[in-house]
Amino acid sequence: VVELVESGGALVQPGGSLRLSCVASGFRFTDYWMSWNRQAPGAALEWVSSINTGGLSPTYANSVAGRFTISRDDAKKTVYLQLNSLKTEDTARYYCSTGYREYSLTTPRGQGTQVTVSS
């Protein structure tokens, strides 16, 4: 069974940084694009970033491009999201899932990890 376990969320001040992790199991990790999505209170689930198999072609939503960096470690079956220059509007619950861009909004995800950006 597919299992995705996210961690690394926290309360951080505007301008701060965090690194989120997602450990995957139950499927052949190296065969899949991996993505990060997020959901703010009262809002729809939003695609954030995706990374291809091999990890050489990341892609980002316009709202996070230049501030967030996605990466993966296939040996550890883990995908990461480095969040820099955080803004209050980045406050959301962050989830990882399989799949490319908006398709990842339809695939199974973990329980998520909460990122709160506030002074």
- Rg over CA atoms, rounded to whole Å, is 13 Å
Please state the average pLDDT score. Answer: 96
- Seen as an oligomer or otherwise, the chain set is single chain
Sheet with most strands: 6 strands, mixed
Terminal CA distance reads 40 Å
**Series of H and E elements:** EEEEEEEEEE
How is the largest sheet built, in terms of strand order?
2-10-9-4-5-6
Q: Based on CA inertia axes, which overall geometry fits?
A: globular
**Structural class assignment:** mainly beta
* Number of β-strand runs: 10
Helix content: under 10%
Low-pLDDT residue spans:
none
Beta percentage is 35-45%
Number of H- or I-type helical stretches: 0
Structure notes:
The chain is an all-beta fold and 119 residues long. The strands form two sheets. A six-stranded mixed sheet has the order 2-10-9-4-5-6, with no helix packed on it. It has a four-stranded antiparallel sheet with strand order 1-3-8-7, with no helix packed on it. The N and C termini lie far apart (40 Å).
Describe what is shown at a glance:
The mean pLDDT is 96. The protein has 119 residues and is an all-beta fold. The chain is globular and about 40 Å long.
